[in-house]
Structures are given as structure tokens and as C-alpha cells.
Amino acid sequence: MDSLGRNIATTTSGAITFADSIKKLNSQKEIQYISDDELEAMSFAKGYKERFTLYSDFYTKYKIKNATVALDSLHHPNTSFNRWMYSKNTTVEKIRANPSAFFNFIISKVPFFLFFFTPFFALFFWLIYSKRKYTYMEHMIFIFHIFSFIFLAMLLFKLPDMLFGTEILLTVLFLVIGPIYFYKALRNFYGQGRMVTLIKFVFLNTVFIIGLTFAATIFIAASAAIY
Domain boundary at 80, 97, 114, which? Predict the structure, then answer.
């Protein structure tokens, strides 16, 4: 009887555990399965998005970290691209667990970002100052000068802000000091009048914000891809 009782208890315990597991799985988002052939038939952007969504949903539901095992379960080919795509789930998990570490990783890559962004920005200087007979490289040197000033000011202003636990000085830098310095630098370097310089200042700032937003999006996505 004791043996039978133990078996019943074990079975009952197992049934409860199994029922709980089923309940947990049913409460999660259903996976919309898409075969690899279907994904390949889509456009690159849509296929990329749908593949990432499928792999993310599968990872969230089953917590399989091994990409090879997961791809085998999904009946997707075990290619380097698919393994890389599936491995980004662990990257997302790392970023969510420690966003500050990812932020520091991005900050360390900012000089490379500016190095590649500056030639694009210099193109607009070359276009609107074409009559001033400055070379493209001279425009780039001027932009590097502006970026250098901003970086040095950030380092100087960051320390007091960290000590007092505020962002006041950095806010003043980006909203007041930086724009004023940029305007003065444009006027002194290119030697044009106040109104002309102001118009070009507004135009260049607009281009800078739009271009920086677009480039920063690509930069952050690329950083996440190699993180």
C-alpha cells in the first residue's frame, strides 16, 4: 500500500507539474511559424523582420540558447546567417539585463561613428560654401574642430554634473553654448555677414539633426549586431 501510495503521489505531483507547464505555454504568445522557403520568397526587409520575429518568439517561448538546436527544431537550414540572427536573442537579453553596459559600449564607438559621419556632413558645407573656394578637406577640418570643442566641453561639464547628480551643464552646452560657438565659428571661418551666416547656420543644423538621427539609428543597430 505504501508503494502504491507513493506512486499515486508521484503521478499526482507529475500531473500538476505538467498541467502548470501547459498553462504557462498557453498563456504565452502563439508562434506564427514561417518556413525558410517562405521567408526567402519575401523582400529582404520583410524577410529580415519576419525571421527575427519568428526567432524571437521561439526563443521567448522555449528559451533554447543553442542556435543549432533551435534551427533544427524550426526546420530552418543551419546557415551562418541564421545562426547569427538567432543569436541576437541573447544580445537583446543582455541589453535588457544591463542597458548601461550597452550604452558604454556605444559610447566607446562614437569616435568611429563621427569619423564616418563627418564626410557626409562636409558635403553640405561644400555645397553651400561653393563660392568661397574652400576645398572639401578644409570643410572637414572645420567640422572636426567643432566636434573636438564639443567633446572637450562635454568632458569638462560632465564632471561637475556627476558630482551634483544633475545634467544642467550638459543641457546648457547643447542648447546654448554649442549653437552659439557653432554660429561664431561659421562667421569667423567663412567671413560672411550675420544674416547669411544665420540662414546657413539654421540649414546646417537642420541637416545635421536629420542626418545624425538617420546615421545614429544605423549606428546603434550595427552596434547591437556586433555586441
Answer: 97
Residues 103 and 151 in one domain: yes
The predicted pLDDT at position 222 comes to 76
Q: Which residues contact 162 (CB under 8 A, 6 or more apart)?
A: none
pTM of the entire structure? 0.59
CA-to-CA dists, residue 78 to 39, 53, 59, angstroms: 15, 18, 16
CB count within 10 Å of CB 154 equals 15
**Dist. CA 22–CA 16, nearest whole Å:** 10
Structure confidence by residue, pLDDT tens digits, 141-199: 999 899 888 888 888 887 787 777 777 887 888 889 999 999 999 999 998 999 999 99
Question: Distance between CA 86 and CA 27 in Å, rounded?
Answer: 23
Q: What's residue 79's pLDDT?
A: 92
Write the CB contacts of 192 (distance below 8 Å, at least 6 apart in sequence): 186, 200
C-alpha cell at 128: 553651400
Reported as half-sphere exposure (CB side, CA atoms, 13 A), residue 157 has a value of: 17
Q: Are 126 and 96 in contact (CB under 8 A)?
A: no
Given 54, 78, 97, the domain boundary residue is 97
Helix pair 136-164, 178-190: axis angle to 10 deg: 160
